[in-house]
Specification:
Elements lengths: L1 E7 L5 E7 L3 E2 L5 E2 L7 E7 L4 E5 L5 E5 L3 E6 L4 E5 L3 E4 L7 E5 L5 E7 L1
Parallel strand pairs: 1-10
Antiparallel strand pairs: 1-2, 3-4, 5-12, 6-11, 7-10, 7-12, 8-9, 8-11
């Protein structure tokens, strides 16, 4: 399984990285990853016009997009699109951060899992 990581380098520039999450066959229950400790879970909805200029993540967290679609731009200029079912690992808790905007005219739902 893969997820997209957003992180800041030593100079504070933010970047994307594709991360492979190792899964192990566990029989009838399916393939599972190793557990990840979590601190809290936050549910969120955004208005259709959501467009947040460059900011950094408030904490190291997983973001699971339930529906809708977004475009994220990191400070190195790269942009990527994500939609319902995608998972992000956001670790740019300092530096120049990233920009996020909705790309569909609907409310968007997501879950934040603080690590």
């Amino acid at each position: 399984m893969q997820l997209t990581r957003i992180y800041a380098d030593a100079a504070g520039e933010s970047h994307f990285e594709t991360v492979d999450i190792a899964l192990e066959a566990k029989g009838i229950v399916g393939d599972l990853s190793e557990p990840m400790p979590a601190d809290s879970v936050i549910f969120r909805e955004n208005e259709p016009g959501y467009d947040w200029d460059f900011h950094h993540a408030p904490a190291r967290q997983l973001i699971i997009l339930l529906d809708g679609a977004i475009e994220i731009e990191v400070s190195d200029g790269e942009k990527r699109s994500f939609s319902g079912g995608d998972v992000l690992l956001v670790e740019d808790t300092w530096g120049k951060g990233h920009r996020t905007k909705n790309t569909l005219p609907i409310r968007r739902r997501s879950i934040f899992i603080r690590l």
